[in-house]
Design brief:
heterodimer, A: about 120 residues, 8 strands, globular, B: about 375 residues, alpha/beta, Peroxisomal Thiolase, Chain A, domain 1, two-stranded antiparallel sheet, 11 strands
């Protein structure tokens, strides 16, 4: 194997893309990236790049012992996969289930590699 | 569970180890062994009669080895399945199978934790998940808060309804001398406590205590010759739906729906036949989710169902009669304590909090972040 699913996913993020896998056998999206499709058992998984649009499925505001409260959300992407993320550029208590959001990359800093976050989608579609 | 015989094994001993904040220097294996010694005394058997050993803790990689050595036994059957707080309900099903097949004759299920003494971070080392860790979820609270957000969105469940669950648990705890919490609690106090992960304040979240214990199971024949009335395993069921909250298919429906169905089918009973309900209440939302998924009320109606003190001591349905993980004890993997309380209720040993004429009980375990669900239905000899 030349590159792990995690490495491929990360290389897309480093280019500003949110990648996911598509299972031709199951005809559905797979996330997180892996070697075996959890819906079919097939090892045939294709890489695709998401549009970056999604909808907030669940949301909470976590209050750390020190520092400001922050949002943690589950986002349903339009391509049919869900991921944990954070909605930024909005008061964390104002993040609503059903809100349309758009992906952007949170740049790498220190030991933390780049990762996907979301912001409210202006046109909502 | 298919293949298991209704009443094919009985719980004959049940005991807690020291709870709360245990003596300095005690470790989880100490607490497991103490629980086993007390449960053996409760059953009227000798520790060396134990030939089946089932245990789980996050603080010992090979707890089965360590506990065998500690007790000076070489078990014929051993199982260290670890799936979070529900592990011990899985152990019950595995013990029934082993007893039914003759792999062992006396099985002990044990748990121990010193998470309060050593700190949660050391007791349960968090695994890095590149798809979740960057968002700094405060696990497990954040995951359960996400489930609560979804329940509130879909069904209009309120923070006040969640708080009612914590208040009911506290009322039960005040009747349990072994409970950690000793003072009354009001809905307002729950709502105004320190916010941890919205909608949960610290009072919507289980305690962080030390503790452990054990139960002992044997064959029905042997059970009838022992000290206490046998409590029979009537039904078992389990389901795993995910490991991480981002992979849970529907945050308002847990694997308890499937595990409950399986356990009820094996027991030949339904929710209306259950006298005592012990549910894994690591968070207030759990009680609602499991009341719904185990059929005590319809999906979405859990918030209204728990209102007005229905699950409190004077209410219609006795739920979490020991005070629960919210007010009695929660050393990290709480499932075993649900089984201990169910056994005591069915034996009529619960004093002020005793449910009158209790013949059947359900003990429902939850593990991970609503990930592993396992249901055990118990009954007295009258239910066979």
């Amino acid at each position: 194997m030349e590159a792990s699913p995690l490495a491929v996913y990360q290389s897309h993020l480093d280019k500003g893309e949110l990648a996911y896998q598509w299972s031709p056998v199951a005809s559905r999206a797979v996330f997180y990236p892996r070697l075996v499709c959890p819906y079919s058992g097939s090892t045939h998984l294709e890489w695709r790049v998401a549009s970056g649009l999604g909808t907030v499925y669940a949301t909470t505001v976590t209050h750390p012992a020190q520092g400001e409260p922050y949002n943690v959300a589950l986002i349903d992407c339009d391509e049919g996969f869900r991921l944990m993320s954070r909605v930024e550029e909005i008061d964390p208590m104002q993040v609503r289930i059903g809100m349309r959001v758009r992906f952007r990359v949170h740049a790498a800093e220190g030991d933390q590699l780049a990762y996907p976050v979301f912001v409210p989608a202006e046109d909502g579609r | 569970m298919t293949g298991l015989k209704r009443g094919g094994a009985a719980i004959v001993g049940a005991a807690e180890s020291d709870l709360g904040q245990v003596a300095d220097g005690l470790n989880p294996i100490d607490l497991m062994a103490q629980g086993i010694a007390r449960a053996a005394e409760d059953a009227g058997i000798r520790v060396r009669d134990i030939d089946g050993l089932l245990c789980a803790t996050t603080q010992s990689r090979t707890s089965g080895l360590n506990l065998s050595e500690y007790l000076g036994i070489s078990p014929k059957f051993i199982d260290t399945t670890i799936l979070g707080g529900s592990s011990f309900m899985f152990h019950v099903a595995h013990a029934v199978a082993a007893l039914q097949l003759g792999l062992c004759e006396v099985a002990a299920i044990a748990y121990g934790s010193t998470q309060r003494t050593v700190g949660r971070r050391q007791a349960s080392v968090r695994e890095v998940n590149p798809f979740e860790t960057p968002y700094r979820p405060f696990l497990p609270s954040t995951a359960y808060a996400l489930a609560a957000s979804r329940h509130m969105h879909e069904f209009g469940t309120t923070r006040e309804q969640l708080a009612e669950i914590a208040v009911a648990a506290r009322q039960w705890a005040l009747m349990n001398p072994a409970a950690w919490e000793k003072k009354p609690l009001t809905v307002d106090e729950v709502l105004n406590a320190r916010m941890v992960s919205y909608p949960f304040t610290v009072r919507d979240i289980c305690l962080v205590t030390d503790g452990g214990g054990a139960i002992i199971l044997t064959t029905p024949d042997r059970a009838r010759s022992l000290k206490k009335p046998p409590i029979y395993v009537l039904g078992c069921g389990s389901a795993i739906t995910h490991a991480n909250i981002s992979s849970m298919p529907d945050l308002t429906v847990t694997g308890a729906l499937a595990s409950g169905k399986e356990a009820y089918a094996m027991a030949g009973l339904g929710p209306k036949d259950i006298d005592v309900v012990e549910l894994y209440d690591a968070f207030t939302i759990n009680t609602i989710l499991f009341l719904e998924d185990l059929g005590f009320c319809a999906k979405g109606e859990g918030g209204a169902f728990v209102s007005g003190g229905r699950i409190a001591p004077a209410g219609e349905l006795p739920v979490n009669t020991n005070g629960g993980g919210l007010s009695y004890c929660h050393p990290g993997m709480y499932g075993l304590f649900l089984l201990i309380e169910a056994v005591r209720q069915l034996r009529g040993e619960c004093g002020a909090r005793q449910v009158k004429d209790a013949e059947t009980a359900i003990a429902h375990g939850n593990g991970g972040v609503l990930s592993s669900q396992s249901t055990v239905i118990l009954g007295t000899a009258a239910t066979l």
